[in-house]
Each structure stands twice: as structure tokens, then as C-alpha cells.
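Encode chain A's predicted structure.
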Amino acid sequence: MSQNKRWWHRFSSMKMGLFLLLAISIASAVGTVIPQKLPEGPVSLLMGILHLWDVYHSWWYIALLSLLALNLLACSFGRLKPMLVGTKRSHHLLGVQEITKLKYNTLFTLPGKLDGAKVLVESLFTRQGYKVWSEPDTGKVKMGADRGRFYVLGSFITHISFLVILLGVFYGGVFGCKGVIDAAVGSTFDLTEVPGLERISREDSIQVRVDDFWIERYDNGSPSGYFSRLTILEKEQPVKTETLGVNAPLAYKGIKFYQSNWGQLAKIIVNRADGTLLQQGAANEGEILRVLGTDYSVLVYRYHFPSGGTMDETSIVYAIYKGDQPAGMGKAQFNQPVLLGDEGNTFAFTGLVPFTGLQVKKDPGVPMVIMGSLLMLLGIGSTVWLKPRKIWVVLEQQGETVIVTLGGVSHKNSKMFAEDFSCLVEELKATAKLTAFNHSIKEAQ
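Encoded structure for chain A:
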């Protein structure tokens, strides 16, 4: 074998496919363990080369998927020709000596004539799902029968299903995107504003309005589920309104919205020294609001709810940063102004507003994955339910009886075939006796 043929044989082997599957599994595990988000600040050389913050879109992950796709193509189509040959019905017939050499064979006699025995055998095999062919000879008949010959295509269909699923994953990984946003009730956001969906095109972008959010509880007060009411807007016109829950996403034009989490956002206003509004926004616990036009930012550290008090007595623990350096910290109640820097600007927390955490996902490869899954069911079903079997028979007239030499082979589940072979022989004998008995009654009448 030449060097090129040896290389191609190794690449198209099942061993190489299993190795690539293992490598992709390990890579997927890495992508699951490492947070998949753009890092803040500088990254190491290894992180920069391998793009470990975005494993599923990295060059090496896509290369692994491409190699596996090529391996499946080579493995599948390299075996297509012998598979197609196996699906063709071979009408060759065996003689008595050849049949007796088969693993499963038997010899018995049937009462009656040769033509009647031939019709009996054909009828029984046809009822069992076999396709029958025959060839008459002087004083005897050779017969053959088979079924389940398309069984060999089951593995090919299964290979192709893996390829279709892989292409769906590849297509979804390259052209799909996923992001998470905390949206306050009453707010409207554009898909391009969702972190992680920066790659979505303006043509595909839509607006989403959060109409409502609520929590349903059991009798003991524990949450039983939380739900959001969203309205999809196109050109500022509502086109779809729907309620989504944890296990009931909203789908629109290939984009799905999942209920991710929930909570409350602190509303913040920033005023200039002269009292005019500079900025307004909202932030969750642990989030930072950067003040426009300044070096300052406000960290909402924690909400403090007084026991037995009213909502108006709620306070918020905060920290002020100038650049990356702490510039102060404290606790403020609602509408209590807090000095922000030396310019005289102030900020204040004006209240809490409920928000819904939404995971937004666009995966154009899902239809291909579904199609591949259906093909896989078809391929596996073919290998499970189709039973490839071949049987040969020689019928010879000897006096008032017919000598039957019968044998068969099966390339799958030989134990089951042995049982079915025995049942087939017994049924053939029983049918022949019944036919002869009915014939004798008719002659007696």
C-alpha cells in the first residue's frame, strides 16, 4: 500500500472518528467549565491563542468539527459501494451438497407432488416476508428466498445522521449566538444591546418590551414558578405578545427567549451640581453604573431590607470608584443625595424595580440537528428491526413424496435465526400434513 493510500485509510477509519469524538468531548467539557464570556483586561498568551473564553467559536474547535465531518464522509461513502452491492438481490441457487454445508440445514419429506410442494413452500415463505425465486429442473425444483437485505444501509444512514447533526452543530456554532440580559419591567431593549448578541445583524434585530413579571407560589409560600410577559416589536409596532416560563420559552423567527432568573434593580439618577439631570439607569446587586463624562462609577453592593420596616426604609450599601481606585462607600436610603466627586455631582437611589433575567439564543442549526436525529432513528431502527436472512431449498420428487433439503444463513443474531428456522420447518411440515389430510377427505367424498 502506498504512503498516500495508507494515510487515507487511517484518516477514514472508525478509530480516527472515535479519536476525534473524544477530542471534541474534551473540548466541550473545557467550554463548560471555563466561563464563556469575553474577559475583562489582558489575557495570557495561551488564552489568546486558544480563545478559551469562546471555545465553541474558536478556530481549533471548528477545525476538530471539520475533521470529524470529513472523517464521516470518507468513512460513509468509502463503504457505500459494497453496501449497495449487498442490497442487490442475488438469484443464485444452491444444490443439495452446498445446502448441507450451511450451518443451519435439514432434510425431511413432504407427502404429495412436486408442484404442490413448490406452491406450499412459496406461500409459506411469502407470508414470512421473504422474496422467493425458483428454477425448475428434471424431477426437482431449486428455490431461494431472502428478506431484510436493506439492513446493510442502516449503518450508512446512521453515519449520515451523525454528519447532519455535526453540520447542524457547526452551522449553529458559527452563525448562532447566545446572550443574557436583566431587563426591568416596563423597559424595552434591542437584541443588539444584549451582551453576547453583538454579532447579530441589524436586519434580524428586533425590540423586546417587558410588560410584566410575576412569581407564583405554593400554599406554603415557596415559589412554584416565575413568568414574564414579553411583546416583540418590529419598527416599533407589536407583532407578538406571549408569556414565558422556565420550561416554556418564547420563539420568534428562529430566536428563543428563556426565563433565566429574576430579581430587583436599583434605579439610580445622577444630577449635575446645578440640579439638572446628567444620567439615569439601573443596576443589580454586584453591578456597576459608570457615570457618563466622568471617571466615577457606582457599585451597588447590597440591598438592606429592615425587619418590620416599610419599603421606604430600605437602604442600599454602595461603593464609589474613581477609575479603578475606591473613592468612598456608605449606605443610602431612597432619594438621599450622595456627593459624587469634587465637581458637585450627586447621585441617588430612587427605588427598586423588578427585573426578569432572559437568556436570548439564536441557533440556526437546530433544524439540521432535528433532521439528523430523525435520520439516526431511521438508521438505528433499520439495524434493529430488519433481519437479514437467506434460505435455499431443493425439492426432489421420489415416489409419492417430495424430499426437501432446506438450509439458511443469517448475518445477525444467529440464535434467533436458529429458532425461527426450526419454527419454519415445523410449520412447513404441519401445513403439508394438513393439506394432505384435506385432500384425502375430498377424495373420500
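The domain at 89-148+387-444 is CATH 3.30.160.110 (Double Stranded RNA Binding Domain).
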